[in-house]
Design brief:
mainly alpha, 5 helices
Length: 138
């Protein structure tokens, strides 16, 4: 991976953390959200990027959709890991949490694209060999 991609992986998870800290008017939120963001990026974001790079799906809309999806997956993983009993929460509260996690994923994915991929076109996609004509069997 080149330097812009590495920089994007290092900086993009901070963007939704900053947004959340400003929205909550609490700078401590930045630290708390960063503690969760980086492991989730390592576990879900890096493999997702490698898959999307292989498929050639590195446009902004592709990454935003993936960020939305991975944000919801992150919410489910965290609730399972910490044993949150979802039955004790109101359905509206659960839905709002999923929306917030999805927004975090979309913001991080957008920041990743702007930092690491903007202006590159398809140069970052994995190069594939050109199709070869089949040789006749002897």
């Amino acid at each position: 991976m080149d330097r812009r991609i590495i920089k994007a992986f290092l900086l993009a998870p901070l963007v939704p953390c900053l947004v959340q800290a400003v929205a909550m008017r609490n700078p401590v939120g930045l630290i708390i959200y960063a503690i969760f963001s980086y492991p989730l990026v390592a576990a879900l974001g890096v493999p997702g990027f490698l898959l999307f790079r292989r498929l050639g799906w590195l446009s902004l809309p592709h990454l935003v959709f993936a960020g939305l999806f991975l944000g919801v997956v992150s919410a489910m993983l965290l609730s399972a890991a910490f044993g949150w009993e979802l039955e004790s929460y109101a359905p509206q509260s659960i839905a709002m949490s999923l929306v917030i996690f999805a927004a975090h994923g979309a913001i991080a994915a957008s920041a990743f694209w702007f930092i690491g991929l903007r202006g590159r076109g398809s140069n970052i996609a994995v190069k594939r060999d050109a199709p070869q004509a089949a040789r006749p069997l002897p």
